Amino acid sequence: MKNIALVGIGKIAVDQHVPALMASDDWALTATVSRVGTVDGVPAFTDFDAMLAAHSQISVISLCLPPVPRFAYAARAIAAGRHVMLEKPPGATLAEVQLLSTLAAQADVTLFATWHSRMARGVAAAKAFLSDKTITKVEITWHEDVRRWHPGQSWVFEPGGMGVFDPGINALSIMTEILPMPVYLQNAVLRVPENCQTPIQAELQFSNNVHASFDWLKQGDQQWDITVHTQSDEVTLLDGGNRCVMNGVPSTQTSLDEYPALYARMAQLIDEGQSDVDLSPMIHVADAMACGQREMVDPFHF
Ligand code: NAP
Q: Is 160 in the pocket of ligand 1 (CB under 6 A)?
């Protein structure tokens, strides 16, 4: 059993990380670090360095903070010889994550930049099916209501918060996992509320006839779908990758939910002495932020 500490006890820690760890025989949630949040029955710290000093048996740190404050914690954890698991997106900038990779390799610890949507139940089947196909068209639709899924989380509209790319990068993590060829951004339109620093809607056109539509103002039915056309087939991933339909027929799904699968992968990486840091979804977001045409839209308030 591996001793682990969770840092940043907020929405995703409570919704997913804590239940996944508590249900696993492979992990012991041994401490938390958060300024406010705690987990019943688990020793709680507000100071990260104090936790590291007090619990030398904790070999793994899982960082559930928003991206901007995450680098400093990750660097300190690696310097203290601990393995590190990063929530998505792995950081605020590409260079800081590349530096973390270097630091982890030098310290001989595992760094896992997680992409939870890649573990969604239908993704592996779609990837396997598409591996030898010629893709003719891809349509990605990620339309959700930010007020429902990120209530009051103002950091998403601050620099480094990524705006609608916070969920949109999940779609891009699936896209880069399942497509058998690389694609690159050709143009993008980013709609930015006049009181925000990050987009609330985005339309991305990639090479190879791949299009993505991200909308954070969707009311009513929510939609997280990817449809891939090949010369003779149609593969659709529904519900954020959790259901795969091939030519109208539901496919076999993987057995684990996303977060149990992430922690199983983390345990495997540690046991094998490996790291897993794939920046490709974040490169597409950085390209959109660099090259996208900005349109100012109505102010946004939670
Ligand atoms: P959150 O609830 O707003 O923040 C998580 C925790 O981080 C907070 O409770 C806070 O804990 C700590 N924190 C926030 N700002 C901080 C700062 N400047 N310095 C130190 N600690 C800070 O966010 P979240 O929704 O859990 O998202 C966290 C990460 O998980 C993001 O990268 C997000 O993309 C990813 N994620 C979120 C979801 C989701 O549905 N929300 C799903 C999958 C992945 P304290 O105030 O107690 O210190």
A: no
